[in-house]
């Protein structure tokens, strides 16, 4: 009784193992690459929405030139950095740790005491990260009323400020609407469930028949590599969910803020009215630029059109005058008719040669058969 029960358990285990093996071979691993692509695309889109003040400050320096407008340029440059600091503290852990309160903005000289009082006394239940942008717009509007800029310049400046503001708004939207957590959970559960099935279904066969006919691998090498690859992809996807964190590969908005502050200040002060002398403007330059010995060894391939080597014969390039069009058309029709006639003659000749060859072949077969009959037949008189 015990032996029968043991055999039944063994057969049941083998049947279950076979079923799980077939299931693991039929199933494909979860589509982790889809999650990775989605999160990578989302991270790249968020990076593209990081606001850079370069174009706005170039426009400001152009519309507000001269030493009399230096305060306006510097105020807009400082408020652009203040805007970045306030907005990014709501989405980036690094920036939040750098400016945890509004007083840190004052101590960083991005905000004055008057601006601090105005900002903190403002009641905004839905956020007030856009306040420095409004200060920039109000300053531009004031200068337009003072006739410092015209309507065309006002329109250009407003477009640049709106574009600068859109980046912060889109980052807030990305921070608000994230990849659904249930999606990542389903992918994680599916991944670990898949490898659980592989663990149970890809056990080595230790019966005598299998060991005699198959190569027994006690350690699942390929399953181990498969697990490392897919679990690695899963972890990469999980790290990409929040690109504004504190990981080494996350976006370093503190550096971006420092860079933008420096560039905006340079454009507002040093570069606003900087212009080379007339002699430098009139300086001529060589069309053929020099190379170093290191760069000369690397010859770049000049791109060419696929028709760059296309040529026509001298006859094909001859112009046809309007009065010659009818004659040329008749000439082309005559050539086509003659060509068709030659092709028809060639086809008839090929058909005729084929028939002659067939008749000749049939005649040879008849002669061959007649000769065989003559050889096989005997003279009846000789036989008698």
TrEMBL record:
UniProt keyword annotation of Cytoplasm present: no
UniProt topology in membrane: Multi-pass membrane protein
Transmembrane annotation, as ranges: 180-201, 213-233
Region (Disordered): 1-20, 348-384
Gene Ontology MF, one: chloride channel activity
Signal peptide: none
Primary role: Forms chloride channels.
Name assigned to this protein: Bestrophin homolog
Protein's organism: Ditylenchus destructor
